[in-house]
Write a structure and sequence with these properties.
Layout: H1 10-16, H2 25-33, H3 41-51, E1 56-59, H4 66-78, E2 88-91, H5 95-108, E3 116-119, H6 126-135, E4 138-141, H7 143-151, E5 162-165, H8 168-173, H9 177-185, E6 192-197, H10 202-211, E7 216-219, E8 230-236, H11 242-250, E9 258-261, H12 265-277, E10 283-285, H13 291-303, E11 308-311, E12 326-329, H14 336-343, E13 353-359, H15 364-374, H16 436-444
Parallel strand pairs: 1-6, 1-7, 2-4, 2-5, 3-4, 5-6, 8-13, 9-11, 9-12, 10-11, 12-13
Helix pairs in contact: 1-3, 3-4, 4-5, 7-9
């Protein structure tokens, strides 16, 4: 497996900034134009080794710059290569990550002759086939769609020099590792292979042992806290009043770009319908949306045409949307790391941002585990004027739930300043009238 410790020389390169990296002036110009000056620890530890052609394992949590850590060495190593052949392949688990990496590649390589193409499902195959037959030097692909092309004989990897496995643990979670193994068995043996992952579960370790040669391992320890600059606030609320409370929050004009996470695809769709009934339009991203719908929703959110994007956790990891002012956890995630991934979508690039979590009584245990993971007791607050005692409605269709007065001003977090709405009124959610079993039963029948 090669070295099992982090690269000892990461600090030197990090201190020198990108100017001290073994990168061509054309690439440094692209880096400057993106506004980056100091490499992240994973970039500082991996780029020099990767530029030298060594196989590499890089582990770091999401949001630490792993994409540039493999794209920059790819561009550097291919600058003097003959064009018109597929020279590098990046395997990534989702369409969104493929599209994002393609866009980042174009920015970093804008002063070079190298071309990149994203290959993913949900769209036509003709343009992708041409790219795979030599139209682009760098291919960024999801495993399923790439296997479709391979089964049709559309792929020419005879000249492949570099392979990257991006978000390897996510590919394991999504069931892609058998497909990845099939692809790797068809690639040239003489190549550089880089594997990047947030974690290294046993299946990913076995994959690395089988397909990497004497890799250098660079590990950046996960932090116990979410991104610096995130202000955390918990809002206890009965389950059936969550949608009404979210509507109350969205009346705050400082919530300019809001990413809302739900537990399931069904809840994401239902929440977006509720918001629409209130005249609040939101984009939706989850696994059942078509590729065209997902791209349109993400671009509308990025451009500001929609200030709200409702998503399941497919958007929590690796999706880079600048300027997200607020993350709202409509549902508390089951795992603390998922919370960290979610709230990491705000406070990007040294900005600040707010993370609000709507916590029902049933979710308090999950939220307690998140606080333990962060080593932080997150401030609880209630919204003045909001009716927390409204009873759960009877089963059957109904209009949007009623809400209270507008929510003025942003609550600040534990240690983040004074809450302008006053102190938290209760650590636990105020109970709704009726039994908890009734509350859950109504939720199953389609009410909040």
């Amino acid at each position: 497996m090669g070295d099992d410790k982090a690269s000892p020389d990461t600090g030197a390169h990090e201190g020198e900034g990108f100017s001290g990296m073994p990168l061509h002036a054309k690439l440094k110009a692209g880096i400057r134009e993106l506004g980056y000056t100091i490499p992240t620890p994973i970039q500082a530890g991996t780029i020099p080794e990767a530029v030298g052609g060594r196989d590499l394992i890089g582990t770091a949590q999401t949001g630490t710059g792993k994409t540039a850590a493999f794209l920059l060495p790819i561009l550097e190593r291919l600058l003097d290569q003959q064009t018109g052949r597929t020279l590098a392949l990046v395997l990534t688990p989702t369409r969104e990550l493929a599209i994002q990496a393609e866009g980042f590649l174009k920015q970093l390589g804008r002063h070079t002759h190298l071309r990149g193409t994203a290959v993913y499902g949900g769209v036509g195959m003709d343009d992708q086939r041409r790219a795979l037959r030599g139209g682009s030097e760098i291919i960024i692909a999801t495993p399923g769609r790439l296997l479709d092309h391979m089964s049709r004989g559309y792929v020419d990897f005879r000249n492949l020099r570099i392979l990257v496995l991006d978000e390897a643990d996510r590919m394991l979670d999504m069931g892609f590792l058998p497909d990845v193994r099939r692809i790797l068995n068809e690639l040239p043996r003489q190549r550089q292979t880089m594997l990047f992952s947030a974690t290294m579960p046993p299946e990913v370790v076995r994959l690395a042992r089988d397909f990497l040669h004497d890799p250098k391992t660079v590990h950046v320890a996960a932090t116990t806290a979410a991104a610096v600059g995130v202000a955390h606030l918990a809002l206890p609320v009965p389950q059936h009043l969550k949608a009404a409370l979210l509507r109350e929050l969205l009346a705050d004009t400082t919530m300019t770009s809001v990413l809302v996470f739900t537990r399931t695809k069904h809840r994401a769709d239902r929440l977006a319908r509720h918001l629409s009934l209130w005249g609040v339009e939101a984009g939706i991203i989850h696994g059942d949306r078509s590729q065209a719908q997902r791209v349109k929703a993400l671009e509308s959110f990025r451009s500001g045409r929609h200030r709200i994007l409702v998503a399941t956790d497919i958007a929590a990891r690796g999706i880079d949307v600048e300027g997200v002012s607020h993350v709202v956890n409509f549902d508390v995630p089951n795992e603390p790391d998922v919370y960290i991934h979610r709230v990491g979508r705000t406070a990007r690039a040294q900005r600040s941002g707010d993370a609000f979590t709507l916590v029902s009584r049933e979710e308090e245990d999950d939220f307690d585990r998140i606080e333990q993971r962060l080593g932080l007791e997150i401030r609880r607050a209630t919204i003045p004027g909001f009716n927390y005692q409204e009873a759960a409605p009877p089963p059957g269709p109904r209009g949007p739930p009623r809400g209270g007065r507008s929510f003025g001003g942003r609550g600040r977090p534990s240690g983040g300043g004074r809450d302008r709405r006053g102190p938290p009124r209760d650590r636990r959610a105020p109970p709704a009238r009726g039994r908890r079993g009734d509350e859950r039963g109504h939720e199953r029948r389609g009410n909040w």
